[in-house]
Amino acid sequence: MLTDNQLNHFQDNGFIIIDDLSERVIPQFLCDQIDELVAASLMKQATIGKAQFNQINTSERGDLIHWVDPNNCDSTTTTLLEHLDEIKMDLNRSFYLGLRDFECHLTQYPIGTYYKKHVDRHKNGSSRRVSVVYYLNPTWTRGDGGELVIYTNDQSIRVEPVFGRLALFLSELEHEVLPTSIVRKSLTGWMLTEEII
Description:
The chain is of the alpha+beta class and 197 residues long. It has helices spanning 4-13, 25-39, 75-95, and strands spanning 15-18, 44-45, 64-67, 101-109, 115-118, 128-135, 148-152, 155-159, 166-170, 175-177, 184-192. It has a single domain, classed as q2cbj1_9rhob like domain (Jelly Rolls), CATH 2.60.120. Helices cover 23% and strands 29% of the residues. The chain is globular.
């Protein structure tokens, strides 16, 4: 699924941006699903930290999340997960990353929220190896905010949350989500080096 150019870019820079992952029906379905979850009060405030240090801190991170159960989800979400699994296999074949599983949640950033600079691969050990963000914002335009900024090779890469765009990057790279002036939605996940039991 990944092209040679994309694989070379990942090798050199630690990230890839893909704009043609799937047909528009998939991100629109997931966007609508988030609206339904919010209406049913099933999106929960995200936390920071790991294990006993896990806590809510809205001055660091303001998003709401709902974890996706790959064994109990609709066919549209399953199709997206299959696309991501193909990418995971491509990365394993090319870079021997030992990726064995995937976890993800639906994410909504309310107006004015953000996520300060951080890494997804925890210092005290983590199976997260590659981070994934799939954008679900059909009306996003420049000036709406909510961009992802990835810090790599002494530079910063600003990724606009364009509808249907997929960003993949090494989980050890520092990154942040800038303040958003609209409701910003995505599916956010991680390719893991351990299987989820």
